[in-house]
Design a protein that fits this description.
alpha+beta, 6 strands, 42% helix, globular
Length: 157
């Protein structure tokens, strides 16, 4: 167990819980990459932080909690829960997420979140879209494309 890396992951999630983008950014390596089922690959700290800025703005009142943080000298993991109102539909979402991390220079250089896309789409989009289409590749592509367009449109801060 690497206590510095456990503390780094905890600091990241504490900052996320307070929507403190500056503190989140301090946890990331300049060459960080992020991926999840929606934002598949986001490269570089500036772009990753714009993604978080977008996420915190789109998910009205994001509340998060985390647990099961582990880390060694090279990698780490945590489980976190995101609770928010999905802005496009006004629906409440409780998303259970497993996160994996890699470290370089005692900072997070790779952050990958994994969650059940079909379950998320049912909560976020409701019926019939989420239930009927949430599992289809075409629907996933639509959601991913929309997220990428929103990220591309966001000006660097």
């Amino acid at each position: 167990m690497n206590d510095r890396h456990v503390a780094l992951i905890s600091a990241f999630y504490d900052a996320l819980g307070h929507a403190d983008l500056a503190a989140m950014e301090r946890c990331y390596h300049p060459e960080v990459s992020f991926g999840d089922p929606v934002f598949q690959e986001v490269e570089g700290r500036d772009r990753v932080m714009r993604m978080w800025q977008l996420q915190l703005g789109v998910h009205n009142g994001l509340k998060s909690s985390y647990r099961d943080v582990t880390a060694d000298d090279f990698s780490g993991s945590a489980h976190w829960t995101a609770r928010y109102t999905f802005s496009s539909t006004g629906r409440e979402v409780v998303n259970e997420i497993d996160a994996l991390f890699r470290f370089e220079d005692d900072l997070i250089v790779r952050h990958h979140d994994e969650f059940d896309f079909k379950r998320w789409s049912k909560m976020a989009l409701g019926r019939p879209h989420g239930l009927l289409f949430g599992w289809t590749p075409m629907w996933r592509k639509t959601i991913r494309d929309r997220a990428a367009q929103q990220l591309d449109a966001l000006e660097p801060s």
